[in-house]
Amino acid sequence: MNTVLLIGRILFAFMFVTGGLNHLTKAEAMAGYASYKKVPAPKFANLASGVLLIAGGLSIILGVYADLGALVIAVLLVLMALKMHDFWAQTDAQAKQTETVGFFKNISMAGGALIMFAIAATEGSDYGWTLTDSLWQFAK
């Protein structure tokens, strides 16, 4: 079962690593979109979120304080959903639909990250092969 859990962590977190790399390699375009969405300090926000996505994703994949990595990913996803996918403010039907899908995609993945956090941070839990123990050890 450890192999299945490891594969699941890799499949879940790979999107965040690649997304974070896109934030860094396509920084101008991503910062431009963040500016359009009225993100404060869009260049810095884009680079910081890219670094956090990569770090959180690798943390989950490698099992290096995976609980912290999952929590970072969950917080980022909720913040990005609220700021970047404001479907409630859209008047165009197609834009509203696109932003709704993006919003709920981020929110659902945040839910998955919170489940991963809860499992990894629970004392005595097993979530596959890891390089370190979890940062937190909450009682069941």
Uncertain residue segments:
none
**How many alpha or pi helices?**
5
Query: What is the β-strand count?
Result: 0
Q: Describe the global form.
A: elongated
Number of domains: 1
Beta-strand percentage?
under 5%
Taking the alpha carbons of the first and last residues, their distance comes to 21 Å
Instruction: Round the Cα radius of gyration to an integer and report it.
Output: 16 Å
Overview of this protein structure:
It contains five helices and no strands. The chain has 140 residues and is mostly helical. It has one domain. Helix 2 packs across helix 3 (42-62) and helix 4 packs antiparallel against helix 5. The longest helix has 28 residues, at 93-120. It is elongated, with a radius of gyration of 16 Å.
Give a brief rundown of this model.
The protein has helices spanning 2-25, 27-36, 42-62, 66-84, 93-120. With 140 residues, it is mainly alpha-helical. The model has no long low-confidence stretch (mean pLDDT 96).
Which descriptors apply to this entry?
mainly alpha, 73% helix, 140 residues
What topology does this entry show?
Blueprint: H1 2-25, H2 27-36, H3 42-62, H4 66-84, H5 93-120
